[in-house]
Amino acid sequence: MTESTMSTSSTPARPVSRGREIRTGLRDATPLALGALPFGLLFGAVGQQADLSLLDTMLMSALVNGGSAQMIATGLMASGTAWFLVVATCLVVNMRHVFYSAALSAKVRHLPTLWRAVLAYGMIDAIYVLAAKRYEDATGDRRGQQHWYVLAASVLMYVGWLSSTLIGYVFGKDVTSIDGLGLDFAIYATYIGLVVSCFTSKRAVAAGLMGGVLALALHRLPYQSGLFFATLAATVALALWEGRVRAEDGTPKSAEQEPTANG
């Protein structure tokens, strides 16, 4: 093998450009954004019927940026619940975001604080699914442009959420029955397709099945806390399983994460 051939074969793949990451992020987030529109419309209508002002409704969508938490908070506020109980309830509903942070923190550790804050703010369920898949596909490219992919997808989802909230508030009663039209099927179908594509090992399949079964078994727990406990149990089980496999193979965790000096 000639020197030039060896040099070519050992050259790492060229990282994807920023522009391509942005375009791909917008493309991948489009079906999720369309599927989320009915939820935004419904929340806008609920806010209007709960006698919230347009400003309050839009601020809630802009600052909370979480459909389930916003729906629950609006109902509690309309019933006169104390503000600290509303806040505590929303925190319980969104506890699953702790797992998102744990899963992606190593991927964005090299980014400036402002970048990490922006990405964290937009890290809703749909964006986490896209981000996890994108970073998994880019394994080995530690300093790539994947954060632009996540940012583009987040912005699209955010704009769609605010726009649909505004339309839902303005038209009010005309959209209160939209949840019965089945338009939300698109977002669930897209989630399923993205999640299934991540089942690349027996351990991933087992953890997914365990989490799904537990989530169904615990779905009657208040404030969607069953989802949190199901995810926690599946995560702990997977971590113990991987630790046992590494111990049997004699492979330290650091050896799997860090490249050797020779590449």
TrEMBL record:
Membrane topology (UniProt): Multi-pass membrane protein
Keyword terms: Cell membrane, Membrane, Transmembrane, Transmembrane helix, Transport
Entry's Gene Ontology cellular component terms: plasma membrane
Chief location bin: membrane
Biased composition regions of type Low complexity, renumbered to the chain: 1-11
Positions of the UniProt region annotated as Disordered: 1-21
InterPro entries: Brnchd-chn_aa_trnsp_permease (IPR011606)
Signal sequence interval, chain numbering: none
Transmembrane segments: 71-93, 114-135, 147-171, 183-202, 222-241
Location(s) in or outside the cell: Cell membrane
Coiled coil: none
Gene Ontology BP, a term: L-valine transmembrane transport
UniProt family annotation: Belongs to the AzlC family.
Protein name per its UniProtKB record: Putative Branched-chain amino acid transport protein AzlC
Organism: Streptomyces afghaniensis 772
